[in-house]
Amino acid sequence: VKMGFLSSVEAAATIQEYWSLAGRGSANWGMVVLVRKQIDDWYLCASTASTCYTSSIDYGQAVVFVDIYLRDYVWKSLLNDYLAGGITRTTTNYYYTAIQKAVFEPMSDQVPSTPCIGFSFERVY
User: Rounded CA gap, 76 and 74, in Å?
Assistant: First the structure.
């Protein structure tokens, strides 16, 4: 599975807009998103939540860190959408808004309506 920012003109402009909304100053900020296979002690992750995340900010290195966990049924849903229509179809997935929120909320406390995150799957033999 690959998860990343989409490179379309609209997505790139939206990503830049939301970085600007964060008002983090003139540093060359970066973002690290780590997708976790399991959650051990995330006491804030309700058993009914499809997507959970934690985040932290390293102001010294100008990096936003986000750890995301997606329940198995979310992965299956994304895979089914990918098989039915590729990366574009994953952006209309039922759980997509929650996933995009997990990435953008730590960045700027706001969530864009424009799809900015894509998923692709590769068959492993």
Answer: 5
Distance CA 71, CA 75 (A): 7
Q: Distance between CA 84 and CA 102 in Å, rounded?
A: 24
CA angle 9, 87, 92 (to 5 degrees): 90
The model carries a pTM of 0.87
Query: What's the pLDDT band for 42 if we cut at 50, 70, 90?
Result: low
Q: Which pairs with CB-CB distance under 8 Å and at least 24 residues apart come from 96-100?
A: 98/50, 98/51, 99/51, 99/68, 99/70, 99/74
Which of 123, 6, 101, 9 shows the shortest CA–CA distance to 52? 101
Query: Using CA atoms in the order 14, 99, 40, 58, what is the torsion angle rounded to 10 degrees?
Result: 10
Closest C-alpha among 34, 41, 43, 104 to residue 70: 34
Query: What are the phi and psi torsion angles at 52 (to 5°)?
Result: -130, 150
Nearest to 118 by CA among 23, 8, 39: 8
**∠ CA 106-58-16 to the nearest 5 degrees?**
50
